[in-house]
Amino acid sequence: MSSRLVLLNARIGLGGPIRHLVIEKGRVVDVSGLIDADFRGERIDVQGATVLPGLYDAHVHMVQWAQARRRIDLSPARSAREAVDLAVAGRSGDGPTVGYGFRDALWPDAPDTSMFPPGAFVLVSNDLHTAWLSPEALRLVGRGDHPTGVLREQDCYTAMAALPPPPREEVDRWVVEAASAAAARGVTGVLDFEFADTVTDWSRRVAEHRVDVRVTCAITRILLDQAIHAGLRTGEEVAGSGGLLEVGPLKLFADGSLNTRTAYCDHPYPGTGDRGLLELPPDELRATMARAAAHGLHPAVHAIGDSANALVLDAFEELGCPGRIEHAQLVRSDDFVRFARPGLVAGVQPAHGPDDRDVAEIHWRGRTARAYAYADLLAAGAVLQFGSDAPVAPLDPWDGIASAVTRTDDDRPTWHPEQAVPLGAALTAACGGRSGVARGDRADLMVLADDPCAIAPEGLRRIEVVATLLRGGFTYRNGV
Protein backbone atom coordinates (compact mmCIF):
# COMPACT_ATOMS: atom_id res chain seq x y z
CA MET A 1 0.00 0.00 0.00
CA SER A 2 1.40 3.38 -0.99
CA SER A 3 1.26 5.81 1.98
CA ARG A 4 1.13 9.06 -0.03
CA LEU A 5 0.30 9.42 -3.70
CA VAL A 6 -1.04 12.14 -5.97
CA LEU A 7 -2.66 11.54 -9.34
CA LEU A 8 -2.04 14.74 -11.28
CA ASN A 9 -4.40 16.03 -13.97
CA ALA A 10 -7.10 13.42 -13.39
CA ARG A 11 -10.64 13.80 -14.66
CA ILE A 12 -12.74 13.08 -11.58
CA GLY A 13 -15.99 11.29 -12.40
CA LEU A 14 -18.10 11.11 -15.56
CA GLY A 15 -17.56 14.30 -17.52
CA GLY A 16 -15.91 15.76 -14.44
CA PRO A 17 -13.28 18.44 -14.00
CA ILE A 18 -9.51 17.99 -14.18
CA ARG A 19 -8.14 17.90 -10.63
CA HIS A 20 -5.27 16.53 -8.59
CA LEU A 21 -6.28 13.59 -6.40
CA VAL A 22 -4.28 13.01 -3.22
CA ILE A 23 -4.25 9.62 -1.50
CA GLU A 24 -2.82 8.93 1.93
CA LYS A 25 -3.06 5.81 4.07
CA GLY A 26 -5.54 4.20 1.71
CA ARG A 27 -7.97 7.15 1.63
CA VAL A 28 -8.67 10.04 -0.70
CA VAL A 29 -7.58 13.06 1.36
CA ASP A 30 -7.94 15.84 -1.21
CA VAL A 31 -9.41 16.52 -4.63
CA SER A 32 -8.29 19.97 -5.76
CA GLY A 33 -6.59 22.04 -8.43
CA LEU A 34 -3.54 22.79 -6.30
CA ILE A 35 -0.80 20.71 -4.72
CA ASP A 36 1.37 22.12 -1.94
CA ALA A 37 4.95 22.66 -3.00
CA ASP A 38 6.16 20.69 0.00
CA PHE A 39 3.98 17.65 -0.73
CA ARG A 40 6.02 14.52 -0.14
CA GLY A 41 5.03 11.38 -1.94
CA GLU A 42 4.79 9.81 -5.36
CA ARG A 43 3.35 12.00 -8.12
CA ILE A 44 1.89 10.46 -11.27
CA ASP A 45 0.59 12.58 -14.13
CA VAL A 46 -2.36 10.65 -15.61
CA GLN A 47 -2.79 13.27 -18.36
CA GLY A 48 -6.54 13.64 -18.29
CA ALA A 49 -7.42 10.01 -17.63
CA THR A 50 -10.75 9.48 -15.86
CA VAL A 51 -10.79 8.34 -12.23
CA LEU A 52 -13.88 6.51 -10.98
CA PRO A 53 -14.68 4.29 -8.00
CA GLY A 54 -13.41 0.75 -8.43
CA LEU A 55 -15.85 -1.82 -9.76
CA TYR A 56 -17.57 -4.24 -7.40
CA ASP A 57 -18.85 -7.48 -8.91
CA ALA A 58 -21.75 -8.27 -6.62
CA HIS A 59 -22.23 -11.91 -7.65
CA VAL A 60 -19.41 -14.30 -8.48
CA HIS A 61 -18.47 -17.93 -7.88
CA MET A 62 -14.72 -17.56 -7.69
CA VAL A 63 -13.59 -21.19 -7.65
CA GLN A 64 -15.96 -22.12 -10.47
CA TRP A 65 -14.86 -19.06 -12.46
CA ALA A 66 -11.19 -19.89 -11.91
CA GLN A 67 -11.81 -23.47 -13.04
CA ALA A 68 -13.97 -22.41 -16.01
CA ARG A 69 -11.06 -20.35 -17.33
CA ARG A 70 -9.26 -23.69 -17.75
CA ARG A 71 -12.14 -25.87 -18.92
CA ILE A 72 -13.23 -26.86 -22.42
CA ASP A 73 -15.53 -24.22 -23.89
CA LEU A 74 -18.89 -25.75 -24.79
CA SER A 75 -20.67 -22.50 -25.60
CA PRO A 76 -20.55 -23.04 -29.40
CA ALA A 77 -22.48 -26.33 -29.12
CA ARG A 78 -25.85 -26.18 -30.89
CA SER A 79 -26.80 -29.75 -30.00
CA ALA A 80 -25.99 -32.45 -27.48
CA ARG A 81 -23.92 -34.24 -30.11
CA GLU A 82 -21.86 -31.10 -30.77
CA ALA A 83 -21.24 -30.68 -27.02
CA VAL A 84 -19.84 -34.22 -26.79
CA ASP A 85 -17.70 -33.68 -29.90
CA LEU A 86 -16.20 -30.52 -28.39
CA ALA A 87 -15.45 -32.31 -25.13
CA VAL A 88 -13.79 -35.22 -26.91
CA ALA A 89 -11.70 -32.88 -29.07
CA GLY A 90 -10.48 -31.02 -25.99
CA ARG A 91 -9.71 -34.06 -23.87
CA SER A 92 -6.21 -34.15 -22.42
CA GLY A 93 -4.40 -35.62 -19.43
CA ASP A 94 -5.66 -37.86 -16.67
CA GLY A 95 -8.83 -37.49 -14.63
CA PRO A 96 -12.30 -36.46 -15.72
CA THR A 97 -12.65 -34.30 -18.82
CA VAL A 98 -14.67 -31.23 -17.82
CA GLY A 99 -16.41 -28.90 -20.23
CA TYR A 100 -18.38 -25.81 -19.36
CA GLY A 101 -20.87 -23.44 -20.93
CA PHE A 102 -23.48 -25.44 -22.85
CA ARG A 103 -27.04 -24.12 -23.26
CA ASP A 104 -29.46 -26.98 -23.86
CA ALA A 105 -32.77 -25.11 -23.82
CA LEU A 106 -32.81 -24.89 -27.63
CA TRP A 107 -31.04 -28.17 -28.51
CA PRO A 108 -32.84 -30.37 -31.08
CA ASP A 109 -31.60 -33.60 -29.46
CA ALA A 110 -31.84 -34.85 -25.88
CA PRO A 111 -28.61 -35.52 -23.96
CA ASP A 112 -28.05 -39.12 -22.98
CA THR A 113 -25.19 -41.21 -21.60
CA SER A 114 -25.10 -43.29 -24.81
CA MET A 115 -23.60 -40.31 -26.68
CA PHE A 116 -20.30 -40.47 -24.79
CA PRO A 117 -17.24 -42.54 -25.78
CA PRO A 118 -15.39 -44.44 -23.03
CA GLY A 119 -13.98 -42.17 -20.33
CA ALA A 120 -15.11 -39.83 -17.58
CA PHE A 121 -16.79 -36.73 -19.05
CA VAL A 122 -18.49 -33.98 -17.04
CA LEU A 123 -20.30 -31.29 -19.03
CA VAL A 124 -21.62 -28.31 -17.07
CA SER A 125 -24.31 -25.92 -18.30
CA ASN A 126 -23.73 -22.20 -18.63
CA ASP A 127 -26.12 -21.45 -15.74
CA LEU A 128 -24.46 -24.03 -13.42
CA HIS A 129 -27.81 -25.69 -12.73
CA THR A 130 -27.27 -28.77 -14.94
CA ALA A 131 -24.46 -31.29 -15.27
CA TRP A 132 -24.39 -34.05 -17.90
CA LEU A 133 -22.14 -36.96 -16.98
CA SER A 134 -20.87 -39.97 -18.87
CA PRO A 135 -21.36 -43.45 -17.36
CA GLU A 136 -17.81 -43.52 -15.99
CA ALA A 137 -18.22 -40.08 -14.42
CA LEU A 138 -21.57 -41.13 -12.93
CA ARG A 139 -19.84 -44.04 -11.23
CA LEU A 140 -17.25 -41.65 -9.79
CA VAL A 141 -19.99 -39.69 -7.99
CA GLY A 142 -22.03 -42.72 -6.91
CA ARG A 143 -24.79 -42.30 -9.52
CA GLY A 144 -23.91 -45.19 -11.81
CA ASP A 145 -27.56 -46.20 -12.19
CA HIS A 146 -28.74 -42.83 -13.55
CA PRO A 147 -30.53 -43.40 -16.89
CA THR A 148 -29.53 -40.24 -18.82
CA GLY A 149 -26.64 -38.69 -16.90
CA VAL A 150 -28.46 -35.33 -16.82
CA LEU A 151 -28.47 -34.02 -13.26
CA ARG A 152 -30.31 -30.82 -12.40
CA GLU A 153 -30.41 -28.46 -9.41
CA GLN A 154 -29.46 -30.15 -6.10
CA ASP A 155 -28.50 -33.39 -7.87
CA CYS A 156 -26.13 -31.35 -10.02
CA TYR A 157 -24.56 -29.52 -7.08
CA THR A 158 -24.11 -32.74 -5.11
CA ALA A 159 -22.48 -34.53 -8.04
CA MET A 160 -20.07 -31.67 -8.75
CA ALA A 161 -19.06 -31.57 -5.09
CA ALA A 162 -18.40 -35.33 -5.19
CA LEU A 163 -15.92 -35.15 -8.07
CA PRO A 164 -12.24 -35.57 -7.11
CA PRO A 165 -11.02 -32.00 -6.60
CA PRO A 166 -7.70 -30.60 -7.82
CA PRO A 167 -5.11 -29.98 -5.09
CA ARG A 168 -6.14 -27.14 -2.80
CA GLU A 169 -2.94 -25.22 -3.43
CA GLU A 170 -3.53 -25.35 -7.18
CA VAL A 171 -7.12 -24.13 -6.87
CA ASP A 172 -6.02 -21.27 -4.61
CA ARG A 173 -3.44 -20.20 -7.18
CA TRP A 174 -6.07 -20.26 -9.94
CA VAL A 175 -8.45 -18.18 -7.83
CA VAL A 176 -5.82 -15.58 -6.97
CA GLU A 177 -4.83 -15.35 -10.65
CA ALA A 178 -8.50 -14.83 -11.58
CA ALA A 179 -8.77 -12.05 -9.00
CA SER A 180 -5.73 -10.31 -10.49
CA ALA A 181 -7.25 -10.61 -13.97
CA ALA A 182 -10.40 -8.95 -12.63
CA ALA A 183 -8.31 -6.14 -11.13
CA ALA A 184 -6.92 -5.48 -14.61
CA ARG A 185 -10.50 -4.59 -15.65
CA GLY A 186 -10.96 -2.13 -12.78
CA VAL A 187 -12.41 -4.52 -10.18
CA THR A 188 -11.59 -3.75 -6.55
CA GLY A 189 -14.14 -6.01 -4.85
CA VAL A 190 -16.33 -9.07 -5.31
CA LEU A 191 -19.16 -10.81 -3.48
CA ASP A 192 -18.28 -14.49 -3.61
CA PHE A 193 -21.24 -16.90 -3.55
CA GLU A 194 -19.11 -20.02 -3.95
CA PHE A 195 -20.73 -23.16 -2.52
CA ALA A 196 -17.99 -23.57 0.10
CA ASP A 197 -16.65 -22.24 3.39
CA THR A 198 -15.69 -18.94 1.80
CA VAL A 199 -14.56 -17.33 5.08
CA THR A 200 -12.04 -20.09 5.76
CA ASP A 201 -10.92 -20.40 2.14
CA TRP A 202 -10.35 -16.68 1.63
CA SER A 203 -8.68 -16.30 5.04
CA ARG A 204 -6.15 -18.90 3.89
CA ARG A 205 -5.67 -17.18 0.53
CA VAL A 206 -5.00 -13.72 1.95
CA ALA A 207 -2.55 -15.25 4.43
CA GLU A 208 -0.62 -17.13 1.74
CA HIS A 209 -0.96 -14.95 -1.38
CA ARG A 210 -1.28 -11.38 -2.55
CA VAL A 211 -5.00 -10.89 -3.24
CA ASP A 212 -5.86 -7.95 -5.50
CA VAL A 213 -9.54 -7.47 -4.58
CA ARG A 214 -11.62 -7.12 -1.47
CA VAL A 215 -13.88 -10.12 -0.94
CA THR A 216 -17.30 -10.29 0.68
CA CYS A 217 -17.67 -13.92 1.78
CA ALA A 218 -21.19 -15.29 1.45
CA ILE A 219 -22.33 -18.04 3.82
CA THR A 220 -23.82 -21.15 2.26
CA ARG A 221 -26.95 -22.56 3.86
CA ILE A 222 -25.35 -25.80 5.06
CA LEU A 223 -22.87 -23.74 7.11
CA LEU A 224 -25.48 -21.55 8.82
CA ASP A 225 -25.10 -23.26 12.21
CA GLN A 226 -21.32 -23.01 11.98
CA ALA A 227 -21.51 -19.31 11.10
CA ILE A 228 -23.86 -18.58 14.00
CA HIS A 229 -21.61 -20.48 16.41
CA ALA A 230 -18.60 -18.49 15.17
CA GLY A 231 -20.47 -15.22 15.72
CA LEU A 232 -20.21 -14.13 12.09
CA ARG A 233 -22.36 -11.14 11.16
CA THR A 234 -22.97 -9.65 7.73
CA GLY A 235 -20.86 -6.55 7.11
CA GLU A 236 -18.24 -7.23 9.75
CA GLU A 237 -14.55 -7.60 8.91
CA VAL A 238 -13.18 -11.14 8.94
CA ALA A 239 -10.63 -11.32 11.74
CA GLY A 240 -7.01 -11.50 10.61
CA SER A 241 -7.73 -10.49 7.00
CA GLY A 242 -6.15 -7.05 7.16
CA GLY A 243 -9.42 -5.47 6.06
CA LEU A 244 -9.59 -7.38 2.78
CA LEU A 245 -12.40 -9.74 3.82
CA GLU A 246 -15.92 -9.06 5.02
CA VAL A 247 -18.67 -11.42 6.15
CA GLY A 248 -21.38 -11.54 3.51
CA PRO A 249 -25.01 -12.64 3.42
CA LEU A 250 -26.51 -16.11 3.80
CA LYS A 251 -27.23 -17.58 0.36
CA LEU A 252 -30.56 -19.36 -0.11
CA PHE A 253 -32.34 -20.68 -3.19
CA ALA A 254 -36.03 -20.11 -3.86
CA ASP A 255 -36.06 -21.67 -7.35
CA GLY A 256 -33.97 -22.84 -10.29
CA SER A 257 -33.09 -21.18 -13.61
CA LEU A 258 -34.61 -20.26 -16.95
CA ASN A 259 -32.30 -22.33 -19.16
CA THR A 260 -32.93 -25.42 -17.04
CA ARG A 261 -36.66 -24.60 -17.06
CA THR A 262 -36.72 -24.77 -13.26
CA ALA A 263 -37.32 -21.07 -12.52
CA TYR A 264 -40.60 -20.99 -10.57
CA CYS A 265 -43.14 -19.04 -12.64
CA ASP A 266 -46.79 -18.04 -12.65
CA HIS A 267 -47.33 -19.73 -16.03
CA PRO A 268 -46.27 -23.22 -17.17
CA TYR A 269 -43.44 -23.67 -19.63
CA PRO A 270 -44.79 -24.07 -23.19
CA GLY A 271 -46.16 -27.52 -23.97
CA THR A 272 -46.05 -28.61 -20.32
CA GLY A 273 -47.96 -28.21 -17.10
CA ASP A 274 -44.69 -27.52 -15.30
CA ARG A 275 -44.21 -24.11 -13.64
CA GLY A 276 -40.68 -24.83 -12.44
CA LEU A 277 -39.18 -25.85 -9.13
CA LEU A 278 -39.42 -24.47 -5.61
CA GLU A 279 -36.10 -25.21 -3.92
CA LEU A 280 -37.46 -24.32 -0.47
CA PRO A 281 -41.11 -24.38 0.60
CA PRO A 282 -42.24 -20.88 1.65
CA ASP A 283 -42.49 -21.77 5.36
CA GLU A 284 -38.99 -23.24 5.41
CA LEU A 285 -37.60 -20.31 3.45
CA ARG A 286 -39.07 -17.78 5.91
CA ALA A 287 -37.92 -19.78 8.93
CA THR A 288 -34.35 -19.98 7.63
CA MET A 289 -34.31 -16.29 6.73
CA ALA A 290 -35.65 -15.40 10.18
CA ARG A 291 -33.05 -17.50 11.98
CA ALA A 292 -30.23 -15.97 9.96
CA ALA A 293 -31.51 -12.42 10.48
CA ALA A 294 -31.87 -12.98 14.23
CA HIS A 295 -28.12 -13.69 14.34
CA GLY A 296 -27.06 -10.75 12.18
CA LEU A 297 -26.78 -12.61 8.87
CA HIS A 298 -28.69 -10.95 6.04
CA PRO A 299 -30.43 -13.37 3.64
CA ALA A 300 -29.53 -13.28 -0.05
CA VAL A 301 -32.18 -15.29 -1.88
CA HIS A 302 -31.86 -16.59 -5.43
CA ALA A 303 -35.17 -15.91 -7.20
CA ILE A 304 -35.60 -15.95 -10.99
CA GLY A 305 -39.24 -16.72 -11.85
CA ASP A 306 -42.06 -14.29 -11.09
CA SER A 307 -43.69 -16.66 -8.59
CA ALA A 308 -40.38 -17.14 -6.80
CA ASN A 309 -39.73 -13.38 -6.62
CA ALA A 310 -43.23 -12.79 -5.20
CA LEU A 311 -42.69 -15.42 -2.50
CA VAL A 312 -39.33 -13.95 -1.51
CA LEU A 313 -40.74 -10.42 -1.41
CA ASP A 314 -43.53 -11.73 0.84
CA ALA A 315 -40.90 -13.18 3.19
CA PHE A 316 -38.89 -9.95 3.38
CA GLU A 317 -42.05 -7.96 4.07
CA GLU A 318 -43.11 -10.35 6.82
CA LEU A 319 -39.70 -10.41 8.49
CA GLY A 320 -38.73 -6.77 7.95
CA CYS A 321 -35.05 -7.66 7.71
CA PRO A 322 -32.42 -6.31 5.31
CA GLY A 323 -31.10 -8.55 2.57
CA ARG A 324 -30.80 -9.23 -1.12
CA ILE A 325 -32.77 -10.84 -3.93
CA GLU A 326 -30.37 -12.36 -6.44
CA HIS A 327 -31.28 -12.27 -10.16
CA ALA A 328 -34.92 -11.01 -10.12
CA GLN A 329 -35.14 -12.00 -13.78
CA LEU A 330 -38.93 -12.16 -14.19
CA VAL A 331 -41.07 -9.94 -11.98
CA ARG A 332 -44.83 -9.43 -11.75
CA SER A 333 -45.86 -5.94 -12.84
CA ASP A 334 -47.26 -5.16 -9.39
CA ASP A 335 -44.10 -6.36 -7.64
CA PHE A 336 -41.53 -3.87 -8.95
CA VAL A 337 -42.46 -1.31 -6.32
CA ARG A 338 -42.03 -3.93 -3.59
CA PHE A 339 -38.29 -4.03 -4.32
CA ALA A 340 -38.01 -0.45 -3.01
CA ARG A 341 -38.32 -1.49 0.64
CA PRO A 342 -35.50 -0.13 2.89
CA GLY A 343 -32.51 -2.42 3.28
CA LEU A 344 -33.30 -4.57 0.25
CA VAL A 345 -30.83 -4.85 -2.65
CA ALA A 346 -31.64 -6.36 -6.03
CA GLY A 347 -28.48 -8.15 -7.14
CA VAL A 348 -28.89 -8.40 -10.92
CA GLN A 349 -26.72 -9.55 -13.82
CA PRO A 350 -27.31 -7.43 -16.94
CA ALA A 351 -25.20 -9.63 -19.22
CA HIS A 352 -27.81 -12.38 -18.78
CA GLY A 353 -30.44 -10.39 -20.69
CA PRO A 354 -28.77 -10.51 -24.11
CA ASP A 355 -27.51 -14.03 -23.35
CA ASP A 356 -30.99 -15.33 -22.55
CA ARG A 357 -33.16 -13.36 -24.97
CA ASP A 358 -33.79 -16.25 -27.38
CA VAL A 359 -34.65 -18.70 -24.61
CA ALA A 360 -36.83 -16.12 -22.86
CA GLU A 361 -38.80 -15.40 -26.03
CA ILE A 362 -39.73 -19.08 -26.18
CA HIS A 363 -40.22 -20.05 -22.54
CA TRP A 364 -41.47 -16.67 -21.27
CA ARG A 365 -43.36 -15.75 -24.43
CA GLY A 366 -45.57 -12.70 -23.93
CA ARG A 367 -43.88 -11.80 -20.64
CA THR A 368 -40.44 -10.56 -21.72
CA ALA A 369 -41.43 -6.90 -21.24
CA ARG A 370 -41.01 -7.56 -17.51
CA ALA A 371 -37.94 -9.78 -17.81
CA TYR A 372 -34.49 -8.40 -16.91
CA ALA A 373 -36.47 -5.19 -16.37
CA TYR A 374 -33.77 -3.06 -14.75
CA ALA A 375 -35.22 0.29 -15.82
CA ASP A 376 -38.54 -0.61 -14.20
CA LEU A 377 -36.75 -1.66 -11.01
CA LEU A 378 -34.87 1.64 -10.91
CA ALA A 379 -38.02 3.64 -11.62
CA ALA A 380 -39.75 1.85 -8.75
CA GLY A 381 -36.98 2.94 -6.37
CA ALA A 382 -35.08 -0.35 -6.07
CA VAL A 383 -31.40 -0.36 -5.15
CA LEU A 384 -29.51 -2.28 -7.84
CA GLN A 385 -26.09 -3.88 -7.62
CA PHE A 386 -24.62 -5.44 -10.75
CA GLY A 387 -22.83 -8.76 -10.81
CA SER A 388 -21.61 -11.15 -13.47
CA ASP A 389 -22.57 -14.49 -11.86
CA ALA A 390 -19.18 -15.64 -13.16
CA PRO A 391 -18.68 -18.15 -14.69
CA VAL A 392 -22.21 -17.75 -16.11
CA ALA A 393 -20.85 -14.53 -17.64
CA PRO A 394 -17.23 -13.36 -17.63
CA LEU A 395 -15.93 -11.66 -14.52
CA ASP A 396 -15.71 -8.35 -16.36
CA PRO A 397 -18.23 -5.76 -15.13
CA TRP A 398 -17.82 -3.76 -18.34
CA ASP A 399 -19.71 -6.54 -20.13
CA GLY A 400 -22.61 -6.08 -17.72
CA ILE A 401 -22.47 -2.28 -17.91
CA ALA A 402 -22.59 -2.40 -21.71
CA SER A 403 -25.47 -4.90 -21.65
CA ALA A 404 -27.45 -2.72 -19.23
CA VAL A 405 -26.98 0.39 -21.36
CA THR A 406 -27.42 -1.16 -24.83
CA ARG A 407 -29.62 -4.26 -24.13
CA THR A 408 -27.71 -6.22 -26.78
CA ASP A 409 -24.33 -7.89 -27.16
CA ASP A 410 -24.30 -8.58 -30.90
CA ASP A 411 -25.44 -6.93 -34.12
CA ARG A 412 -29.15 -7.55 -33.46
CA PRO A 413 -31.50 -4.70 -32.52
CA THR A 414 -31.79 -3.72 -28.89
CA TRP A 415 -33.98 -6.13 -26.92
CA HIS A 416 -36.69 -4.23 -25.05
CA PRO A 417 -34.96 -0.84 -25.26
CA GLU A 418 -37.42 0.57 -22.71
CA GLN A 419 -35.48 -1.38 -20.08
CA ALA A 420 -32.10 0.20 -20.90
CA VAL A 421 -30.32 1.82 -17.94
CA PRO A 422 -28.59 5.23 -18.17
CA LEU A 423 -24.79 5.05 -18.06
CA GLY A 424 -24.51 6.89 -14.75
CA ALA A 425 -26.96 4.58 -13.03
CA ALA A 426 -25.26 1.52 -14.55
CA LEU A 427 -21.86 2.60 -13.26
CA THR A 428 -23.26 3.26 -9.78
CA ALA A 429 -24.79 -0.22 -9.73
CA ALA A 430 -21.50 -1.72 -10.97
CA CYS A 431 -19.45 0.15 -8.34
CA GLY A 432 -21.38 -1.22 -5.36
CA GLY A 433 -23.43 1.96 -5.01
CA ARG A 434 -20.53 4.43 -5.20
CA SER A 435 -21.30 7.19 -7.68
CA GLY A 436 -18.22 9.39 -7.48
CA VAL A 437 -14.85 10.10 -5.88
CA ALA A 438 -14.69 12.48 -2.92
CA ARG A 439 -12.53 13.35 0.05
CA GLY A 440 -12.68 10.67 2.72
CA ASP A 441 -13.49 7.81 0.31
CA ARG A 442 -11.54 4.58 0.36
CA ALA A 443 -8.92 4.75 -2.37
CA ASP A 444 -10.34 1.76 -4.23
CA LEU A 445 -10.26 3.32 -7.68
CA MET A 446 -9.94 2.68 -11.40
CA VAL A 447 -8.23 4.93 -13.93
CA LEU A 448 -9.62 4.84 -17.49
CA ALA A 449 -7.97 6.03 -20.67
CA ASP A 450 -11.30 7.54 -21.80
CA ASP A 451 -14.32 9.07 -20.12
CA PRO A 452 -17.08 6.43 -20.50
CA CYS A 453 -19.68 9.07 -21.36
CA ALA A 454 -17.52 10.29 -24.24
CA ILE A 455 -17.45 6.99 -26.13
CA ALA A 456 -20.13 5.09 -28.03
CA PRO A 457 -22.09 2.72 -25.76
CA GLU A 458 -21.06 -0.32 -27.81
CA GLY A 459 -17.44 0.58 -27.02
CA LEU A 460 -17.89 0.15 -23.27
CA ARG A 461 -16.91 -3.53 -23.41
CA ARG A 462 -13.53 -2.55 -24.85
CA ILE A 463 -12.81 0.41 -22.59
CA GLU A 464 -9.15 0.65 -21.59
CA VAL A 465 -8.30 0.44 -17.90
CA VAL A 466 -4.87 1.97 -17.36
CA ALA A 467 -4.68 1.44 -13.60
CA THR A 468 -6.54 0.00 -10.62
CA LEU A 469 -5.84 0.95 -7.02
CA LEU A 470 -6.85 -0.93 -3.88
CA ARG A 471 -6.36 0.90 -0.59
CA GLY A 472 -4.25 3.42 -2.51
CA GLY A 473 -1.83 0.85 -3.93
CA PHE A 474 -1.67 -0.31 -7.52
CA THR A 475 -3.07 -3.76 -8.26
CA TYR A 476 -2.86 -3.09 -12.00
CA ARG A 477 -0.90 -0.48 -13.90
CA ASN A 478 -0.40 -0.10 -17.63
CA GLY A 479 0.50 3.22 -19.17
CA VAL A 480 0.59 5.53 -16.14
> Given the helix and strand composition, which structural class is it?
alpha/beta
In total, the number of domains comes to 3
Main beta-sheet annotation: 8 strands, mixed
Q: What is the mean pLDDT?
A: 96
Percentage of β-strand residues: 15-25%
User: What is the correct CATH architecture of the largest domain?
Assistant: Alpha-Beta Barrel
Uncertain segments are none
The amount of helix comes to 25-40%
What's the end-to-end separation, in Å? Answer: 17 Å
Overall CATH class of the largest domain: Alpha Beta
Write the layout of secondary structure elements.
Elements: E1 4-12, E2 18-24, E3 27-32, E4 42-45, E5 50-53, E6 55-60, H1 62-68, E7 72-73, H2 80-89, E8 97-102, E9 121-125, E10 130-133, H3 135-140, E11 150-152, H4 154-162, H5 168-183, E12 187-192, H6 198-208, E13 214-220, H7 224-230, E14 245-253, H8 282-294, E15 299-303, H9 306-319, E16 323-327, E17 344-348, H10 352-363, H11 374-379, E18 383-386, H12 397-406, H13 423-430, E19 445-448, E20 465-470, E21 473-477
Parallel strand pairs: 1-4, 1-5, 6-12, 7-8, 8-9, 12-13, 13-14, 14-15, 15-16, 16-17, 17-18
Antiparallel strand pairs: 1-2, 2-3, 5-19, 9-10, 10-11, 19-20, 20-21
Helix pairs in contact: 1-5, 8-9, 12-13
Protein name: Amidohydrolase 3 domain-containing protein
Organism: Sinosporangium album
Pfam families: Amidohydro_3
Quick structural summary:
With 480 residues, the protein is of the alpha/beta class. The chain has helices at 62-68, 80-89, 135-140, 154-162, 168-183, 198-208, 224-230, 282-294, 306-319, 352-363, 374-379, 397-406, 423-430; strands at residues 4-12, 18-24, 27-32, 42-45, 50-53, 55-60, 72-73, 97-102, 121-125, 130-133, 150-152, 187-192, 214-220, 245-253, 299-303, 323-327, 344-348, 383-386, 445-448, 465-470, 473-477. Strands 1, 2, 3, 4, 5, 19, 20 and 21 form an eight-stranded mixed sheet that branches.
